[in-house]
Amino acid sequence: MPTERSAPLRIERFDPARHDRSGFSCGVPRLDNFLQLTAKKQQAADMTRVYVVVEDGDTRILGYHTIGMGMMEASLLKKRPRGSPDHGELPVLFLGQVAVDERAQGQGLGGILMHHVFEKARLVADEAGCFALLLDVMTDGGEEAFERRRDWYAGFGFEPFTSRPARMFLTLKDMRAILER
Fold first, then answer.
1. Is 2 among the domain residues?
2. Phi and psi based region of residue 168 (left: phi greater than 0; alpha: psi -120 to 50; beta: remaining)
3. Which UniProt keyword terms apply here (predicted)?
4. Residue 31 belongs to what H/E stretch?
């Protein structure tokens, strides 16, 4: 049951010494375990960046997302982008996870996190170049859960690869158009 929000929300980089992740449960054990056991290690090793949503004045994590850099083969696209490098790899920002605590689900936090991802992708693209956002839709929970997740990402403009339906992408060009609306 959604609760009324008593304080403004903040999105900040995960600080394991400060943010309370002990009670976080989004309903997907793999995502809960990532936050509990792996996020600190991967962030310290510069493999990913984890961003968390908290209420002002509180350290309990309400949701999180992870991002990291990656490469994508241009040949996976229906049409090779103009100006793409000869080596065929395109720079991407990889969205690893988006998770919202069960107690905060249904309040729009997933959309807030996705908007934050878009803003981060725009910053990366402005500084270093980035062709697209890329993600793999989790298959945990069966086909119905997978379809629900895939439809959720499609609602933000992500498209599946023909050869790999669980992998989705959104070009920065399309993402910028979404942000400008």
1. no
2. beta
3. Acyltransferase, Repressor, Toxin-antitoxin system, Transferase
4. helix 29-33
